[in-house]
Design a protein that fits this description.
The chain starts with a helix and ends with a strand. It has two domains: 113 residues, 3-Layer(aba) Sandwich (Rossmann fold), CATH 3.40.50.720; 33 residues, no CATH class. By secondary structure, the chain is an alpha/beta fold. The strands form three sheets. The protein has a three-stranded parallel β-sheet with strand order 3-4-5, with helices on one face. A two-stranded parallel sheet has the order 1-2. 39% of the residues lie in helices and 16% in strands. Helix 7 links the parallel strand 6 and strand 7. The chain is built from seven helices and seven strands. The protein binds nicotinamide-adenine-dinucleotide (NAD). Keywords: Oxidoreductase. InterPro entries: ADH-like_C, NAD(P)-bd_dom_sf. This is Alcohol dehydrogenase-like C-terminal domain-containing protein. It holds the Pfam family ADH_zinc_N.
Length: 177
């Protein structure tokens, strides 16, 4: 759920681990949908155009995906994820939330589903990513939309990432410039 820098990185990691199966991505932005396909998504769904739950079911033997990774950080998205995963499936929350989020637990209870969370901040996480970049297992060039100088970080970095999601994905800062 969500193909921002985090969701796209999740797709890359699934591909790097040679995960066997479909990767279904749910996203709104046209550019991010396109990059999700380039990163390896097998299907990209726009929740404004299609019913995510029924499309996911039809793509996965009528049952829905085994795992959903929530990377959008909006209540509608995590609730859709809770409904879309199959019975006994797993919802992994990767998103961070500014405030408590209302989640309908009934699909979790009746589907005997599980919820988990993942945060990636340790030195060994960074080492593993650096190694995967070095070996070429992670190919992230397609995610890099801008290269900016240090004094452009606020306007062309943070503000662009918040306001221009359709064109801004990964912004590299050249600290020497
Ligand atoms: N767990 C961690 O270690 C970790 C680390 C960094 C960031 N995060 C969090 O991960 C989340 C994603 O980060 P990001 O930088 O990719 O954010 P982002 O805002 O750039 O990307 C979120 C994407 O979700 C899409 N989206 C919005 N509503 C949607 C919906 N209803 N269905 C599907 N997609 C929808 C948006 O179009 C956007 O592309 C944020 O909450 C961020 O704080 C977590």
């Amino acid at each position: 759920m969500g193909a921002g820098p985090i969701g796209l990185a999740v797709i890359q990691c699934l591909k790097a681990r040679q995960m066997d199966g479909q990767i279904i991505v749910v996203e709104l932005s046209a550019k991010r949908k396109e990059i999700a396909r380039q990163c390896g998504a097998s299907t990209v769904i726009d929740p404004r155009e299609e019913d995510v739950v029924s499309r996911c079911r039809s793509l996965c033997d009528g049952q829905g995906p085994a795992v959903a990774l929530e990377c959008a950080g909006v209540p509608a998205s995590i609730n859709t994820a809770c409904r879309a995963v199959r019975t006994k499936g797993l919802i992994v929350n990767v998103a961070l939330w500014d405030e408590p989020v209302p989640i309908d637990l009934m699909p979790i209870v009746f589907g005997e589903k599980r919820m988990a969370a993942a945060v990636s901040l340790t030195a060994s996480d960074f080492r593993a990513v650096i190694d995967a970049l070095e070996s070429g297992k992670l190919k992230v060039e397609g995610m890099i939309t801008h290269r900016i100088k240090m004094d452009e970080v606020v306007a062309k970095g943070f503000e662009a990432l918040m306001k221009e999601k359709d064109t801004t994905i990964k912004v590299l800062v050249d600290v020497r410039a």
